[in-house]
Amino acid sequence: MLNPSTLLTPPSSSQGVFAICSCLQMKLCFKYCRTLAQDYDISESYLDTNQISPSNAYSEKQDSSSSLQPRMQYLTKKQRKLAEKNPQSIYAVVDGALLAIRECQHQFEKRLWNCPTQPSNVGGSIFGRILNIGCRETAFIYSIMSAGVAHAIATACSTGRIHTCSCDYRLEQPTDEDWKWGGCSDNVKFGYRFSKQFIDSIEQGEDLRFMVNRQNNEAGRRHVVSETRKECKCHGMSGSCTMKTCWMKLSSFKVIGDRLKEKFDGASKVDAGNGWESTGNRASSSSNRPSRSSSDKNSASYLSNNFENSISSKNRKENDVKKINRNKLNFVPVDESHKIPTKKDMVYFQESPDFCTTSTNSKYKFEGTRGRECNATSMEIDGCQLMCCSRGHETETYIHEKTCRCSFEWCCKVECDVCRETRVRNICK
């Protein structure tokens, strides 16, 4: 197994990570993936996110110019400028992408489509051809990738791994007298803005597909913001907690993944609203800003009250983001019983393919569910009847090994026995 941290040490290896990072962007430089993998001898197992974890390998010894030059031509002009402006940020983008892929596979491990990734040396998107259609699954991919980059960048800022940002010390002091801001708050604002500029710069069209992609990108980022929570530490004699020091902390990405999965389940199929031409392009922009949802208002106080205004003010100073903001999104749910989507909702405009048919599997390079484990007693989607697409399943036994009867030996080690037990699993035919 090739660990990303081993790729970040010599300059030639850092080029490989930079190139793979480029290919992780959903619609960018797909045709170069095969060449890049061959150039840098990156094995297929590099993208096996069930075993790999984000690298967190930001080398202080590396010269930033050497880590940013290779394969820059495969990024958009705006992405290159953003990476050059924020040295070491590209490593956080890699971390965020790997984090998103791993969480996507966790959320869909018991469904027909389980967020599969394909080897880097076959060309095309890492997620396969599913991105060619605007279905629910594609909506989740866009949202989770955008959220992953925002989360990783915000974390990298507060831990000092990106030198152009730091902890968020610009929090408005509350009127309460029993607590005050202190410590190191995760810089979620910087993470949001970076992800918006880096990810959304790819979506340059103004037809329905590009607008749907932007909506789903925004939904992912919004959940990173709304899931930020206030943490406090008490001060006082004998734990009296007469004064508290508080800071804002990102939720674990697992929490964000759970929220996005809920939005996936409740996603709305949409069509273009008023102001769009029959071809799907916008004829005019709407000046009305959609109202924030109640869940936005109930999030951490300083973010829910000040976040949109601070972001809008920053965007007005940056031409590239301002152009994006002029394209107000105007969707109409196909099902009239569905509400108008908010900024935190996922949308799609095409139905999902039938993942049980061989034609679908071939068309979208999906391996199907053959060989997948199922639950013989469940009537849900993870049950063998649905998971195996009515093909039936086989039951097999296997030996499971685990550590047990651990004891501490002075000094200083822990010794454990290896216990074996027989287990049963069901495998789709």
Automatic annotation (TrEMBL):
PROSITE patterns: WNT1. The keyword Repeat does not apply. Residues 281-301 have a biased composition (Low complexity). GO terms for molecular function: cytokine activity; frizzled binding. GO terms for cellular component: extracellular space. Residues 271-319 are annotated as: Disordered. Residues 302-313 have a biased composition (Polar residues). InterPro entries: Wnt (IPR005817), Wnt_C (IPR043158), Wnt_CS (IPR018161). Ligand for members of the frizzled family of seven transmembrane receptors. Belongs to the Wnt family. This is Protein Wnt.
